[in-house]
Design brief:
This protein is of the alpha/beta class. The chain is 35% helix and 15% strand. The termini are far apart.
Length: 398
């Protein structure tokens, strides 16, 4: 596709994608054999959902900054008749505060927040046969890796991003592809090491220990027993790192990996790109030991007052035009392969490994630590509160 053709297709896609989604809703009538959702008022076919959305006429969203942006919200509202009200939140704390105090139909979350919402039974299981775009998403974001409870699906993936090892060129002129430069060599670099001030960074330490300390028998870095948790915290304690406010989540798109003096650290691709644009000579790699990452998702409230508009929205944000626009705006790898024909940068998907599921095989997506290990150990794992306590103790000893 030529650049001119690509840009034309991109604009056409954003202008018409909702009409296509609604057209599917009108032309198809997929009936569910047995109900898998308890949403009151939700239509039982795509045609009923489209008609019900017109009657509802409204959609209340809680979203990370930029995840429900005007360029794709406005066409959706025009075509579906659902007036969209967006309440943006920048941190997980602000998100849960909004979910506690506002009426909401759908929310954009990442793995950690998604796991908590599922565990607390605040979001509804989805009937994905009523979400046609879900079927074409890349295999790596579907299936049991998503948030679930008793096998029921709860999310529509929106994009994914890895945690990268950030290296300043003058500090590490040679090619490096091992996180040893962070966890071992970093002991000598003091505050030139930068880490997000986030308890889930314990999971990043656990990924390294999974490779470096097989005797610990770490499988999933977010399913740690007490011994494994202590080993990860001990590894972190060995660094005299600078802790950067914020986290590796989608609410922290502008957060940089420390300052221009940072030699090595952890950062999102968008943060690394921002630092590079500021003139810092640096690079970022995925360590050979593997890394963490996140899948951003959309979920529907169990108490959604506008469930039909919410279902149309979840299908819409998985469509190619929205996926292309959102990916480049937010620094995500799109999860709908067709989006790769619509990105402004023809190399975007290749550079972000959007359709290369094998590249993501050793990326452990962030989730909420729970007591249930998910394996034969049963309820022997440490939970979110224990991780927060361990992190607070680590920070106090600095």
């Amino acid at each position: 596709m030529t650049d001119k053709g690509r840009k034309t297709a991109y604009v056409v896609a954003l202008a018409s994608v909702v009409a296509a989604v609604v057209g599917v809703a009108i032309g198809c009538d997929f009936r569910r054999d047995t109900p898998s959702t308890r949403l009151a008022g939700l239509g039982s076919s795509l045609h009923e959902i489209q008609r019900g959305a017109r009657a509802e006429g409204r959609l209340e969203l809680v979203a990370w900054p930029g995840y429900a942006a005007a360029p794709w919200v406005e066409p959706f509202a025009r075509q579906t008749g659902c007036r969209v009200d967006v309440h943006e939140v920048a941190t997980p704390e602000a998100m849960f505060g909004a979910l506690d105090t506002r009426a909401w139909d759908a929310v954009s979350v990442s793995g950690a927040e998604a796991g908590r919402l599922v565990a607390d039974r605040r979001v509804a299981p989805l009937d994905r046969t009523l979400l046609p775009n879900y079927a074409v998403l890349v295999k790596g974001v579907k299936g049991p890796s998503g948030p679930s409870l008793d096998g029921a699906p709860y999310d529509v993936p929106f994009g994914r991003a890895p945690t990268l090892l950030f290296l300043r060129d003058d500090a590490f002129p040679e090619e490096e592809d091992s996180s040893t430069v962070l966890w071992e060599q970093g002991r000598r670099l003091g505050r030139l090491v930068a880490l997000p001030d986030d308890p889930l960074v314990i999971g990043d330490a656990a990924v390294y220990l999974k490779a470096a300390r097989p005797d610990l028998r770490i499988d999933d870095p977010y399913e740690l027993d007490e011994k494994q948790l202590e080993a990860a915290v001990r590894l972190l304690r060995g660094l005299d790192a600078t802790f950067v406010p914020g986290a590796l989540g989608p609410g922290e798109q502008a957060s940089l990996p420390g300052s221009a003096e940072t030699a090595v650290g952890l950062a999102t691709p968008s943060a690394v790109d921002a630092l590079a644009r500021s003139g810092v000579a640096a690079r970022a790699v995925k360590p050979v030991e593997g890394t963490t990452g996140r899948i951003d998702e959309w979920m529907v409230s169990r108490k959604a007052e506008h469930p039909n508009c919410a279902y149309l929205w979840l299908d819409y944000v998985a469509s190619p035009g929205v996926q292309a626009a959102a990916a480049e705006s937010l620094g995500l790898a799109p999860v709908n392969p067709a989006a790769c024909e619509l990105t402004r940068d023809p190399n975007y998907c290749e550079e972000h490994h959007a359709t290369d599921d094998a590249w993501w095989d050793d990326v452990y997506f962030r989730t909420t630590p729970l007591e249930d290990c998910g394996d034969a150990r049963g309820a022997a794992c440490t939970n979110e509160e224990e991780w927060k306590t361990a992190w607070a103790t680590l920070r106090q000893r600095r």
